[in-house]
Write a structure and sequence with these properties.
Order of helices and strands: HHHHEHEHEHEHEHEHEHEHEHEHEHEHH
Bound molecules: 1,3-dihydroxyacetonephosphate, iron/sulfur cluster
Strand order of the largest sheet: 2-1-3-4
Strand content: 5-15%
Shape: globular
CATH class of the largest domain: Alpha Beta
Largest sheet: 4 strands, parallel
Structural class: alpha/beta
CATH superfamily of the largest domain: NadA-like
Length: 353
Amino acid sequence: MPGTPARDTLSAMSDPTTALEFTPAVEAATAAIRERLKDVIPDVEWAIHAPLIARINELKQERNATLVVHNYQTPEIFHGVADYTGDSLGMARYGADTDADVIVVCGVRFMAETAKILSPDKTVLLPDMEAGCSLAASITGEDVRRLREQYPGVPVVAYVNTYADVRAEVDICCTSANAVQVVESLNADRVIFLPDRYLGRYVETQTDVELINWDGACEVHERFTADELRGYRADFPGIEVIAHPECPPDVLEEADFVGSTSGMIRYVGERRPEKVVMITECSMSDNVAVEYPDVDFVRPCNLCPHMKRISLPKILRSLETLSPEVELDPELGRRARRSLDRMLAIGRGPGQG
Ligand code: 13P
Ligand code: SF4
């Protein structure tokens, strides 16, 4: 039948992973990564991941591409194919400095927009364009213009978990690693802080500046409760509890340390607690446990469905096809860049890795 071969060819092209097998050559090329991941990935899964990892790592060279990976990505991505791993601030800094022609962002769309704003002439790929964020979805540029009318003259800080239309309207961006420093850098008595009400409330506990908070929240961190944390302390005496500032205030009050994802990782690396629980997205404990086998991690599992849209097959497809590509109107990108550049001129907060 004349149509059949054409259909087969088309489906093979649209699924570049079909021809990949776990050969001895693949096994040898990925042996060092396998060794690192042996406690978090079972053999049956590894046989699927290894050929993808080997091919992605080859293709990165061919495309002069760099993979920027957030701490919430799964271990086979985080330890298997990343050129850089870190929090939103680290990813932004790395994306601004890299010499690569292609940046593949393994994270969510606001992170990919940050890379495109800072590197407008590079090809920025996000392996799944549907990778959103409940915080970024909670506010628009129009909302910011209305806030400015309501509070004339009050400066506006946007968490980077926002899209370019919002960043184009604000004075400065921040991440969870530098929110307090950014708010204080404005030398104002009152500041509009958006969109995360919990991060805003946490910042208020660290500064005398009065904040006008937007009402957004992270769908992953808002689910943690103070009772749950007290339960960990009761069940695991001596456990250290460390939390991300997107959690509600009563949760943060129960924590021994509050910090960005990289700040939490640094805390574990420096203090080497006997037992720890990271009150944040699920995959981070798996990634950090690989680095610190001497630390016992209690692992609650709140998954971010947006972060989990990124997978090895989608990363491979992205590199094969150089899509989906993040596109931004250049003028919007230029306007959004000012608030990011102002943030990048400010360092991390103390203890934020
Ligand atoms: P970090 O900047 O701390 O990595 O946080 C990003 C994020 O999305 C947390 O939910
Ligand atoms: Fe957004 Fe929360 Fe997911 Fe981070 S964890 S990307 S803040 S929904």
